[in-house]
């Protein structure tokens, strides 16, 4: 087994070194990320492996705080008649008392860089190019190790990327990589490792293995995520509740159906967050929206449907206008006091298509409630938009997850995918029904088919 490549992640205080490591390791718990300067006070490490073989070790280091004074001190270390090279000068500094006192933090950084194969110099691209950063690069270059500048926070409108590129080129650093640790590009890791391979030819094979493995992991995560969403939709489409045609009993059954669907959606949200390595608290009430870890916008509120552009079927609108009766939520939508009879006749109860006249009107005996097509559309849109947000989110992000309104018309109108129509005839496919048979081969086939269409 070959020795893993070791990288020291270095730079000024509060430029996102720990943030970069969180995103590269997909570990939101690595180190501490804060807007306060000097959050990292000690060297911390992480290891990336493929098939159990460690290929890359990353070391987070404290921020450089006083490079200007350190560079001046290093330049005075040569004795009369000496012309020390960079590594020898750094070694003398590390052996001296100043490395344990005034420049203790800087000494930790230099020791780790000397012990590593190369360094990633992290830059907050929003900051102006100042003399202290040039001095930092001069100090780090004294270690004689390859340095790859990493431009962080380039997604910010306030970034100064052109200025940094020009400044780095003047220092002879022409190879660099853009990698925003909060909103990393999809190919960000590949570009980072390919740039490292240019500097470290002997490690090209290991870096290529990392690229191949991480691309495979990305595809596997995507497939698993789409299956989770497809299972949610099949569960809700196949859900069916029988209820006696009596006002109190109906309302109780409706409330139970609504709550069951909400809880099922919440389990899907939590599973997606876990799959992508995020925590439940990474989603906040006003942004997802979630409420105490749960989706806050009422799934059954017609206004929520409107906000995402889901068209409520004309049958519901026309039927509700014609009817009179009691408040009743039919098939997933809360209808007004005058909505019951006409809404059912107009088609709000989706299973009327499949189960006939026993579901039409306020009849005696048993009726059946199912989830409306519009609610299925909303479920699909919310989960799909959450998935888009997770794919674009770095593990260093501290702001809550935000779900954008979809711009395309997919899921908002037109026919629902055939697997959902088919699921309505198979109540045993839903985990929300009694005695489910979730492992049936045909159910699994429909989930796979639906996942491809999401």
From TrEMBL:
Molecular function as annotated in GO: GTP binding
Gene Ontology annotations of biological process type: tRNA methylation; tRNA wobble uridine modification
Cellular component terms (Gene Ontology): cytosol
Gene3D superfamilies: P-loop containing nucleotide triphosphate hydrolases
Pfam families for this protein: DUF3482 (PF11981), MMR_HSR1 (PF01926)
Residues spanning the membrane: none
Domain G: 7-152
PANTHER family hit by this protein: G DOMAIN-CONTAINING PROTEIN, TRNA MODIFICATION GTPASE GTPBP3
Protein name (Swiss-Prot/TrEMBL): DUF3482 domain-containing protein
Species for this entry: Pseudomonas helleri
Top-level taxonomy: Bacteria, Pseudomonadati, Pseudomonadota, Gammaproteobacteria, Pseudomonadales
């Amino acid at each position: 087994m070959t020795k893993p490549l070791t990288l020291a992640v270095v730079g000024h205080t509060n430029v996102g070194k720990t943030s970069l490591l969180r995103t590269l390791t997909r570990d939101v718990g690595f180190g501490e990320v804060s807007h306060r300067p000097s959050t990292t006070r000690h060297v911390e490490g992480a290891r990336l492996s493929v098939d159990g073989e460690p290929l890359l070790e990353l070391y987070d280091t404290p921020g450089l705080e006083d490079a200007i004074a350190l560079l001046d001190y290093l330049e005075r270390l040569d004795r009369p008649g000496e012309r020390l090279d960079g590594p020898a000068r750094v070694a003398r500094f590390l052996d001296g008392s100043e490395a344990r006192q005034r420049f203790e933090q800087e000494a930790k950084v230099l020791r780790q860089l000397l012990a590593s194969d190369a360094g990633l110099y992290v830059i907050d691209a929003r900051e102006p190019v100042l003399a202290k950063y040039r001095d930092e690069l001069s100090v780090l270059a004294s270690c004689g190790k390859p340095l790859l500048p990493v431009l962080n926070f380039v997604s910010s409108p306030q970034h100064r990327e052109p200025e940094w590129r020009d400044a780095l080129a003047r220092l002879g650093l022409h190879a660099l990589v853009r990698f925003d640790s909060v909103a990393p590009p999809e190919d960000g890791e590949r570009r980072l490792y390919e740039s490292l391979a240019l500097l470290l030819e002997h490690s090209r094979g290991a870096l290529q293995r990392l690229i191949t493995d991480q691309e495979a992991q990305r595809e596997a995560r995507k497939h698993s995520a789409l299956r989770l969403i497809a299972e949610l939709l099949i569960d809700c489409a196949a859900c069916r509740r029988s209820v006696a045609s009596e006002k109190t009993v109906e309302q109780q059954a409706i409330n139970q159906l609504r709550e069951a669907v909400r809880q099922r959606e919440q389990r899907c949200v939590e599973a997606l967050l876990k799959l992508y390595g995020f925590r439940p608290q990474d989603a906040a009430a006003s942004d997802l929206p979630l409420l105490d870890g749960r989706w806050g916008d009422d799934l059954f509120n017609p206004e929520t449907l409107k906000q995402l552009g889901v068209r409520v079927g004309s049958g519901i609108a026309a039927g509700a206008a014609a009817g009179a009766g009691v408040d009743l939520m039919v098939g997933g939508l809360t209808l007004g006091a005058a909505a019951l009879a006409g809404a059912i006749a107009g088609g709000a109860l989706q299973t009327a298509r499949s189960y006939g006249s026993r579901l039409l009107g306020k009849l005696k005996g048993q009726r059946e409630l199912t989830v409306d097509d519009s609610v299925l559309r909303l479920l699909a849109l919310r989960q799909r938009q959450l998935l888009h947000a997770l794919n674009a989110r770095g593990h260093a992000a501290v702001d809550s997850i935000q779900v954008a309104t979809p711009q395309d018309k997919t899921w908002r109108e037109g026919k629902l995918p055939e697997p959902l129509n088919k699921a309505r005839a198979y109540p045993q496919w839903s985990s929300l029904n009694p005695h489910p048979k979730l492992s049936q081969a045909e159910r699994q086939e429909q989930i796979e088919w639906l996942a491809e269409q999401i």
